[in-house]
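Q: Neuronal pentraxin 1, please. Structure only.
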Amino acid sequence: MAAGPPGSRRLLPPLLLLLLGPALGPALGQGLGQTRFICTSVPLDGDVCAASALGTGSAEELKGTVLQLRETVLQQKETIMNQKETIRELTAKLGRCESQSVLEPGDGKGRKGFSKNTMGDLSRPAAAETLSQLGQTLQSLKTRLENLEQFSRMNSSSQTNNLKDILQNKIDDLEKQVLSRVNSLEEGKLSPRNESEERGKIESTLTSLHQRISDLEKGQKDNRPPDRFQLTFPLRTNYMYAKVKKSLPEMYAFSICMWIKSSASPGMGTPFSYAVPGQANELVLIEWGNNPMEILINDKVAKLPFAINDGKWHHICVTWTTRDGVWEAYQDGTQTGNGENLAPYHPIKPQGVLVLGQEQDTLGGGFDATQAFVGELAHFNVWDRKLSPGEVYGLATCSSKALAGNVIAWAEANIDIYGGATKWTFEACRQLN
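A: Structure for Neuronal pentraxin 1:
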C-alpha cells in the first residue's frame, strides 16, 4: 500500500485490486490460510473501520450482482454465436445464388406464375421455410375451395361437384407430396436430379390448381345476383378498405342498414365513414376500444345499444332526421334504442367520400389501423328518409319485398375494394330462409 500521512493508511482502488489480485494474493495471503478480499471505496477523510463493516454487510448483494453480470455475459456470448452462425448460412446461400446466376443466366423457360426456383438447392432452414410457404399456399387454396363448396350447395350441378372433387383430390395429393418431401429432407435422400423433378411436379400442379380455382371463382361471380355478396376485412390494417363509387346527396333524414359479422376485440372498428371537405366526421359508425358503438354526425355523438360482437351475422339499422336530431337504432329487426338532439337541424352535406372498413381523418384517407373494421359486411344500403319499423323488420328477415336503398344500393358495380379486402357470396339470408 502507498504511504499516507502519519497514523493513516489508504486502500487501493477496487479496480486496481481486481487487476492485481492474482499477483498480490500469495503475498497478502501468506499465513492466513483461505482468505477473501472485499474491496470497498473509502473517501480520504472517511472511517476505514466503518467502511469495512459496511462492506461486509453488502457482500451478498455484490455476489448477486456479479452472478447477474456473468449470466448476462454468457447470454450475449450465446447470441453472438448464433448471429455468427446465421451470417455464415446467409453468406453461403448468397454465394450459391451468385454462382447459379453466373452458370444459369436465364433461359426464358420459366413456368407461368413460377418464374423463380422456389424449391431449389437450398439448405435445410431455407427448405423448411419454403415448405412453410407452400403449406400456407395450400391452406389458401383450401379456403377458396370451401367457399366454392358453399356456392355449389347453393347451385347444385354435377359439373360443379365433379370439379370440386377433382380440386380436392389435387390438394390431397399436394399435401402428400409435401409430407414426402419433408421426410426426404430429414433423411437426406433427395438427389439434385430427383429434387428438380419433384419441384417441377409440385409447381405444375400448383399452377393448374390456381387456374382451375380462379376459373370457378369467375363463374361463381358471373352466376350470382349482383347484391348477393359480402366484403371481408380479415386484418386490422390502415390499407384494407372498400370505397363506394357514389357520394351522398344533401340529406335531411336518412336510414342506413347493413348486415355485419365480427368478433374483433377490443372493438370491431369502423364499418363505414363519410367525410366531406372541412369535416372528416360528417357521418361515421364506429366501435373503438372498449367503448360501445357510436354514430357521429358532424362530430356530435350518440351511443348505440348494440350487442353484436359475437362472431354471428346481425342486421343493424340507424335512422335519423334533422328535425330535433331524433334517431332510432334497430338490431335484428327490433328497435333497441332511440334518442334526440343528435346534430339537430344539420343536414348531411353532399360531395363527400364514403368508405367501408376505415375511419377517415382526411377526405378519403388518413386511416388509422386501430380504428379499422375487422369482420364481414354486406347489404349496406342508404335511404334519404326514415324507414318504418315494418320496413326494417322486412330487411332483417330477408323478405323478398325488402327494398334496396334509394341513395346507395348494395351492388358489386357500386363498390371498389383495396388492400386485400375480398368479396364472397353472402350467406346470412340463405341461412335464415
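A: Brief note, in case it's useful. Confidence is low (pLDDT under 50) at residues 1-33, 101-124.
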